[in-house]
Amino acid sequence: MSAHGSSENDSYVKPNQPYERDTRYIETRITRDGADGYPVEAGRYRLVVSYACPWANRTIIVRRLLGLEDAISMGVCGPTHDKRSWTFDLDPGAVDPVLGISHLQEAYFARIPGYEKGITVPAIVDVPSGAVVTNNFPQITLDFEQEWVDFHRAGAPDLYPADLRAEIDEVNAHVYRDVNNGVYRCGFAGSQESYDAAYDQLFARLDWLSERLKDQRYLVGDTITEADVRLYTTLARFDPVYHGHFKCNREKLSEMPVLWAYARDLYQTPGFGDSTNFAHIKSHYYEVHRDINPSGIVPKGPDLANWTTPHGREQLGGSPFGTGTAPAAL
Length: 330
Known about the structure:
Pfam families: GST_C_2, GST_N_2. The structure is a single chain. By secondary structure, the protein is mostly helical. It contains 9 helices and 4 strands. It has a 4-stranded mixed sheet. Helix 1 (54-66) links the parallel strand 1 and strand 2. Helix 4 runs antiparallel to helix 6. The longest helix is centred in the middle third of the chain and has 22 residues, at 192-213. It starts with 44 loop residues before the first strand and ends in a 42-residue tail after the last helix. Residues 4-9 have low confidence and may be disordered.
């Protein structure tokens, strides 16, 4: 989620145009062979996130599921940001205690002086140099799963099993286009025509997902995979934000029986609900997107207590972690 050029007074909506996400990321990778100059090394890197951002939320969940907390430290930005970038206003003195910076922009500039693209979370920063290594969020979690295996906890689940990768990739492509990014294409549409098209595409895909999940507990295979993580972070934001703020209002998630039960099943699984911060989510969207919520007022609802109600998905079989185990309770 970008903060550069996105102050509270900036516009996310371009009149008479559909929303197009800027996907020009820093594609450097941290790998076991260090091919890009950044080898896997415990304690060297810091993952910078915001609990508000769905793309960053993925990395928080995967890091916790795999038990990478001791290998990769995590800095948390507040839910809002200023015109420069995401800020560390949750920390004492509003400075990240490891990186020693107040704005994430400083780490981007340390890598690429005058960096002009989006200052986005998640970002992985090389602590010794203070420079961003990558903000390529789709690749970050895949590399956590494949390149950081030597630092996975005992019992860590296989979130990207080799025999299911083609299917996971296919599902992820549909979900990204129509759902993960589809809600933004609704919310930031610059014309009725582009909004209508995005809305229809979003709900057609949600119907497709409901049908897929009607008789199977997880999206691909019988355990949690990368595909479930990617869908979950959008579903968690659906009723608090996307339904009203982004006009994705054919119905609420809580009115879609299959997806609502599926989302609650994940929320109640260690690593998901304990990595979800509804207060940060609501604060970010309603306070920052002033061109579609000019008052900046954050709605009090909906009541989120229903996320902990029984979901009944156990009867479909499957096991969240397969032959692995749940991460330790926080």
